[in-house]
Design a protein that fits this description.
The protein has 472 residues and is an alpha+beta fold. It folds into two domains: 272 residues, Sandwich (Jelly Rolls), CATH 2.60.120; 143 residues, no CATH class. Helix content is 15%, strand content 31%. The protein is globular, with a radius of gyration of 26 Å.
């Protein structure tokens, strides 16, 4: 079998700038064409609780929310920590034409990077397959994943993922690496061999506004890193030529901050030879991550993920169904809106009690609205994933105003407790909703002749459960 596979590789593949590739390029993907070249970008679901949010048209650029699940982030933490000594200075090509291209270190790219084995374990294979399905290409076209990290002012100046970017002289240089407002005079050298058709850059941790953004200067787009979210764009135009509109840069990350991300490039040919050469390179995990029970400590990424719990996925649709929020409309007053349904791309549908009007709000917008009755969350069940320690269930036990903000006490089933803001509690609500207790009529006790009010525990109301799991 091994010799047959080797002969097949030798027959269909040849040496190229980015590894082994087919001599004859495959036909373009219809899915890729619809996403990037068949009109303006549109919001759409892509399964598994993930959805595409357009952030630019012409060129079409998307955010893929929750591209990495919580358990996948935890797995990446393990891989990064195990291989921390293998991080090297990031490199780029020197702009030489054709097969004479050399990969070198430059002052334009100052990050550190680490390649993971292609299809090195079941989690990596799942990630590669999901990325390929997103654009309608085979999973073996996905290059080995590259982890990058930035800190202490590290950056990646204006560049293009497909090849060497050439800019007019008056746009080059400077601390910002050049920031042209148009593509005039810009060109991208087309490499021989394999070409990176699509880029998915997955942010592993969240950074504050203005820190480590990914910027597309020619289209005026700036993307803030948010944990688990992927930035998706196509490096070629409808004719298959390099699209200079998607040249971009990774803005500096100052001291005191650290940025982790994953470059997930999808080429126009098979990368399977990389998997053949790296079999056995990935070490299986022992114990940890989501296997039940807490794992002591955590890796390089764990502490960064714990800094901002609000980057987790929104709650299941049924968890917020029926909750009433207050919203002030300028010149019209305050209205009460109740959540009546949810849509994977449109968000939560609020129907207002006063006039029956409806509107869709995303979770982040909804979470900023005050609840009509804050006590309605007390007694509700929650489920929260702690990076490095697994998922834990709990119950909201109390509410109070602290420093003019609404806080809730959440007690977990293992005895731990924490105080969370209103919007964080909404995010970790589980899908089971509790009915309000109903008073029962008094009845005589069997002994003693007295009477006692007895309140039976109401069974939880059955609700449809969401199957949801979970931009260099």
């Amino acid at each position: 079998m091994a010799s047959r596979e080797a002969r097949n590789l030798a027959t269909h593949l040849g040496d190229g700038a980015l590894g082994l590739h087919r001599r004859r390029p495959p036909p373009p993907s219809e899915r890729l064409r619809k996403l990037f070249h068949a009109g303006p970008a549109t919001a759409q679901s892509c399964g598994g609780g993930r959805y595409l949010q357009p952030v630019s048209s012409e060129p079409n650029v998307y955010l893929v929310h929750h591209f990495f699940s919580e358990s996948e982030l935890e797995h990446m933490d393990t891989l990064i920590t195990e291989r921390r000594a293998a991080f090297k200075m990031s490199k780029t090509d020197d702009g030489a034409a054709g097969s004479n291209t050399h990969v070198v270190e430059t002052h334009e790219r100052t990050s550190a990077s680490l390649f993971l084995p292609k299809a090195g374990d079941p989690v990596l294979r799942t990630i590669e397959e999901r990325a390929a399905q997103l654009v309608g290409l085979p999973a073996d076209f996905v290059e080995p994943l590259q982890v990058v990290t930035y800190t202490n002012g590290q950056r990646f100046d204006l560049h293009h993922d497909l090849g060497h970017l050439t800019m007019p002289e008056d746009a080059e240089g400077g601390a910002d690496g050049g920031a042209p407002s148009s593509t005039d005079g810009m060109s991208v050298a087309t490499p021989e061999g394999a070409r990176r058709l699509v880029t998915l850059f997955v942010y592993l941790n969240t950074l504050p506004d203005g820190v480590g953004h990914t910027e597309f200067p020619t289209v005026g787009l700036s993307v803030r890193p948010r944990s688990g979210t992927a930035l998706l764009f196509c490096n070629v135009d409808a004719a298959g030529e390099p699209d200079v509109n998607v040249c971009h840069r990774a803005c500096p990350v100052p001291p005191g901050h650290r940025k982790f991300g994953v470059n997930l490039w999808i080429a126009d040919c098979t990368m399977q030879a990389h998997a053949v050469s790296s079999l056995g390179a990935a070490r299986p995990r022992k114990g940890g991550g989501g296997g039940g029970g807490k794992r002591e400590g955590g890796g390089l990424l764990a502490a960064l993920l714990q800094e901002e719990p609000a980057v987790a996925k929104p709650p299941p649709a049924a968890a917020l169904h029926g909750l009433a929020f207050r919203k002030e409309w300028p010149d019209h007053g305050v209205f009460t809106g109740r959540v009546v349904s949810a849509h994977p791309t449109d968000g939560y549908l609020l129907r207002y009690d006063e006039d029956g009007d409806e509107e869709h709000l995303g979770f982040e917008q909804l979470a900023q609205l005050p609840l009509l009755d804050p006590d309605e969350l007390v007694g509700r069940h929650v489920s929260k994933h702690f990076i490095g320690f697994g998922r834990h269930a709990g119950t909201v036990t109390a509410t109070a105003i602290v420093a003019e903000r609404r806080e809730y006490t959440v007690r977990y089933d293992d005895g731990d407790a924490e105080d969370l803001y209103h919007e964080d509690v909404l995010r970790i609500l589980s899908a089971v909703r509790l009915k309000a207790p109903k008073p029962k009529p008094k009845r005589k006790r069997a002994a003693g002749g007295g009477t006692k009010a007895v309140e039976a525990d109401d069974a939880p109301e059955e609700q449809p459960r969401s199957r949801a799991r979970g931009s260099e």
